[in-house]
Amino acid sequence: MEITQDMTISEKLKILTDAAKYDVACTSSGVDRSNKGQGIGDTHACGICHTFSADGRCVSLLKILFTNECIFDCKYCINRKSNDVPRASFTPDEVCRLTIEFYRRNYIEGLFLSSGILKNPDYTMGLIYETVWKLRNEYKFFGYIHVKAIPGASEDIIEKVGFVADRMSVNLELPTKEGLQQLAPNKNYTNILKPMKQIQMGSGRLISDGKEGYQIVTRTGRKNNSKFVPAGQSTQMIIGATPETDYQLMSVTETMYKQFNLKRVFYSAFVDVNHNIDSPAIIGPNPMLREHRLYQADWLLRYYGFGVKELLNKEHPNFNVALDPKCDWAVNHLDKFPVEVMRADYYTLLRVPGIGVKSARRITVARHYGMLDFNSLKKMGVVLKRAAYFITCGGKTMIPLSMDQDALARTLADTDRKQVYAIENDTTYKQMTLMDLGLKQ
Known about the structure:
This protein is about 35% helix and about 10% strand. It has about 450 residues and is α/β, with parallel strands linked by helices. It comes from Eubacterium ventriosum.
């Protein structure tokens, strides 16, 4: 371990932004907050994320670690205590100054703050709480703040952070207890799931009910009207470091959404930065393509009404790398097609490849006012190069429909080939870092 001393804030920034790049759990804000003329910054539900908000604006977060020093020795982590890498730590005031100065220059719209574990979880979370409290109360910053909760930290400090942050997240790290024990022996599922349950249930102290569950004892006497983690929580899983199938991964995801009411589950394709782990779960030519398919399936769970067992099973445990999960499902359920768009209900329309949430809603409204045609569907956002194989419109087809599974799968794979090529050859867009701006102290 190389411990650096007397570093400038720019030197710390370079180390601690690079150290944070493997944490992907930045997401839309989902909350509104105005500064009411008493501070700087505000937060809109339209979204703070890596690249684009819901209204099309390109936005960004200051994404840093508070420190990359760590007492744990997780095999997959570049910041593990046994690695010989430059170490740095911010002070609370340094994080506040960076956030404010970058915001004033219009470089960022919010803060994503994670950390290695310095001394112990409570000590580190205490520093994070001090940082965010100062941003809110001394620097009057009302922008979006996403904080990573550290497993093992006390309920009291988690509660305090929850009243000053917009979103909190606790990394699940690996999908199974066995994988966690193998690659992160200092961590355990109890310490990970307990703060997730506390964030889900709200402020207060968790008391075991004696049946492997918890009840919340809410504190009384709060004198302010602060909301507890108003934008909810998310988590992240590393995929490919342990041999779980896509079916196992998505089953864990479905359970997390149902039991902890998460806003998002993020998937991070395993990168063997320490060159010390075999990767038996890499499926297909590129782990990034597998990650892409998992995100597509995640979207189907959250917005399209699919269940994991509809998409995968023990006999078919992994996604088709050549087809997106929705198209793959449709090709394997041709008995449910074609769908007549003038009569099908909303949830049936959602099952059609090329019809999304917005276009399905537009169809259900527009057909009350007259007959639709394929040109109308295209204007509503329907991707006809996919949907045309699965729909009729007023009893008519756009192209001759084929019930040949193999031929249809090949045709649909061709429509997706450009996107797959970009993922496999690493030509997709990447997150901009603050170092790209050529900043100097």
